[in-house]
Write a structure and sequence with these properties.
Blueprint: H1 23-42, H2 46-58, H3 60-73, H4 90-100, E1 113-119, E2 125-130, H5 133-153, H6 167-178, E3 185-190, H7 194-197, H8 200-206, H9 213-220, E4 224-226, E5 229-231, H10 244-252, H11 255-259, E6 263-265, E7 275-277, E8 282-286, E9 289-294, H12 297-301, H13 303-306, H14 308-314, E10 324-327, E11 332-334, E12 337-344, E13 347-354, H15 356-372, H16 378-396, H17 402-423, H18 429-437, E14 438-439, E15 451-452, H19 487-500, H20 504-512, E16 531-535, E17 550-554, H21 555-564, H22 574-589
Parallel strand pairs: 1-4
Antiparallel strand pairs: 1-2, 3-9, 3-10, 4-5, 6-7, 8-9, 11-12, 12-13, 14-15, 16-17
Helix pairs in contact: 1-2, 1-3, 1-5, 2-5, 3-4, 3-5, 15-16, 15-17, 21-22
Length: 593
């Protein structure tokens, strides 16, 4: 709940509600505005870029979109800053909009961030800054205006914290660079405390001319509160701020130029790239981790010296612990994968597999979760393990992970076997426990007859080895979703991403619905709205869990539908359902803002 009460009364009529606002029209307006900024920057029209950025900073549509993202979409929506304010209900969000629409980002005075600490892999603590809700909203607005401009300027091998790019793109870029056989020496780099040590003056110099520079300067120097004590920030950009990843990418841009990397347009057999590297060095950047691939050991060893002016200018330094030089035959870990060249009968082969550390981490986590479930039933075990299996399989399946999938399945068998023995210590395994809890696969994905099954609900635990290996398609060169000409290209990528990150049952429903929400008629593959299952005939009216009775819809669409046609009320006829669907479409598809 919000802890403050606003003196100014809302000027919006009571008939207008947060949920029924024209969010589709607002999103389209913001998208078009960002596309115009991108196009103006790519044409070199600096004056037009500044004018469009000013428009974005003052736009009420951008403000509404930012409030929705901060208070409704983001996972950290329930976390408050130093003022203790949140906005978790539609009424509170409307009150926040009514207050902020009369304010100007140019005169906003940022408050200090709330400092917390989270554990890193090595046991050390990572500082995390949590701004106030208004600061987060204004940062999202500034990011909306600044990001399209810099998407034109960013280097093509930068993949972290950028729209339309992912970890898999970075790993595939490394694979493509090393698979040729020339670039076999690897310089693994990691910046020590990157977010906390970046030179603020350098960042401000890079964004000079941006209409919101003063606001960004205020956030950089606003300080933080740690255990009730205020600490000023004279360097760094505060990890946890909405705009910090973008500012870090801006500050770190320039390594390709320093290394003299150049590209030319090339028609390659590999469709993953439209440009080829003309130099003996390749670079891949993801957040504060980077990899430089060289043709000789001497060249790789010289990288520390070459990077000195780059590091000094930005106020950062390399981590001695994580920075090293290795040969591709020894292998190296990057973003949870091990990239290594193996010798085989045909010569050598470059493979990308899940790293030993990430596999051990998943096994450890599964074992710990089951220990906490001692005394619970098998339904709880299936409910806890299924998301973990699905998430890990979706992340690993673009690479060589079949052996890892079998290894994880074997580990799951061992821990569930011990769980069942503990659950029924006085029952025989062959004659009672195995017959009660292991049944043939009901989904038709395999002929396996030993699937952990709940005797009460019939739910089954999926196996990771059922996951199909699908190669990831590398994003081409400098392609950006802000480029209007690439709309179809990114729609195809979004569909592939949806299928890669969605369980099989939902994939099947999505295909049956032509990847559209049956209530509003809009696409469900963008993943910008939460998706949920809906029964055509509710269970309370005799509906089943069969595919023909299920629909995959937007959460908001389902809420509006059942607000108009209560689930436990009279069963709606076709005309009533059609009328409600038309009402939902009018709410979401109206073009006026």
């Amino acid at each position: 709940m919000r802890n403050t009460s606003y003196k100014k009364k809302s000027t919006v009529p009571s008939t207008i509600k947060w949920e029924t606002m024209n969010w589709k029209g607002i999103a389209r307006y913001v998208e078009r505005l960002q596309q115009r900024i991108y196009r103006a920057e790519s044409q070199g029209n600096k004056r037009k870029v500044r004018n469009l950025q000013r428009l974005a900073l003052r736009s009420r549509a951008v403000l509404l979109n930012s409030i929705k993202r901060v208070t409704q979409t983001n996972k950290g929506k329930k976390t408050a800053g130093v003022d203790g304010e949140t906005a978790l209900t539609p009424k509170e969000r409307m009150e926040l909009f009514q207050e902020m629409k009369e304010m100007d980002i140019r005169y906003h005075k940022p408050k200090p961030s709330h400092r917390i600490y989270i554990k890193k892999k090595n046991g050390k603590l990572r500082p995390l800054s949590i701004p106030t809700i208004k600061d987060r909203i204004y940062q999202t607005i500034a990011k909306t205006a600044l990001e399209p401009q810099w998407e034109v300027r960013f280097e093509p091998t930068t993949y972290g914290f950028r729209p339309g790019r992912s970890c898999h793109d970075a790993v595939m870029r490394i694979y493509n660079s090393c698979s040729g056989g020339k670039k076999q020496w690897i310089f693994e780099g990691d910046f020590k405390g990157c977010f906390d040590n970046l030179n603020q003056s350098y960042i401000l110099e890079k964004i000079k001319g941006f209409p919101g520079t003063e606001a960004i300067k205020g956030w950089l120097r606003s300080g933080y509160v740690d255990n009730g004590v205020y600490e000023p920030t004279e360097e760094g950009c505060g990890q946890g701020n909405a705009i910090s990843p973008l500012l870090a990418n801006i500050a770190l841009t320039g390594m390709e130029e320093l290394l003299g990397i150049r590209y030319r347009i090339a028609r390659c057999r590999n469709r993953n790239t439209s440009h080829s590297n003309l130099t003996k060095t390749s670079l891949v950047f993801y957040a504060d981790d980077f990899v430089i691939m060289c043709e000789s050991k001497e060249e790789a060893m010289s990288m520390r010296e070459k990077l000195r002016p780059y590091l000094k200018e930005r106020g950062i330094e390399l981590s001695e612990e994580k920075t090293k030089v290795s040969h591709i035959s020894e292998g190296f870990d990057f973003l949870g994968f091990t990239i290594r060249r193996f010798q085989c009968q045909q010569g050598s082969k470059l493979l990308v597999r899940p790293s030993k550390e990430s596999v051990k981490k998943l096994k450890r986590k599964m074992s710990e979760e089951l220990r906490q479930l001692h005394g619970s039933n098998v339904d709880a075990v299936i409910g806890k393990l299924t998301p973990m299996i699905t998430g890990a399989a979706n992340y690993w399946k673009p690479m060589n992970a079949k052996k890892t999938f079998s290894e994880i399945d074997n580990h799951i068998w061992n821990i569930t076997y011990r769980f069942l023995k503990r659950l029924h210590p006085n029952k025989g395994w062959r004659k009672w426990t195995s017959k009660r809890y292991y049944k043939p696969d009901r989904t038709g994905q395999s002929k396996d007859k030993w699937i952990l099954t709940s005797p009460v609900t019939g739910n089954q635990l999926k196996k990771m080895s059922w996951t199909e290996i699908r190669r990831h398609e590398l994003v081409a060169y400098k392609n950006s979703p802000y480029d209007k000409e690439l709309k179809e290209y990114y729609q195809n990528r979004e569909q592939k991403t949806f299928e890669r990150n969605t369980i099989g049952s939902r994939q099947k429903l999505a295909k049956m619905q032509s990847y559209k929400c049956p209530l509003c008629g809009e696409s469900i593959i963008k993943m910008d709205e939460q998706l949920i299952l809906k029964h055509k005939i509710p269970v309370c009216h005799g509906g089943t869990e069969e595919y023909r009775n299920l629909q995959l819809v937007h959460l908001l669409c389902k809420r509006i539908y059942y607000y108009r046609l209560p689930q436990k009320g009279k069963l709606a006829d076709k005309e009533e359902i059609k009328s409600v669907c038309q009402e939902i479409r009018r709410m979401k598809l109206s073009e006026s803002i």
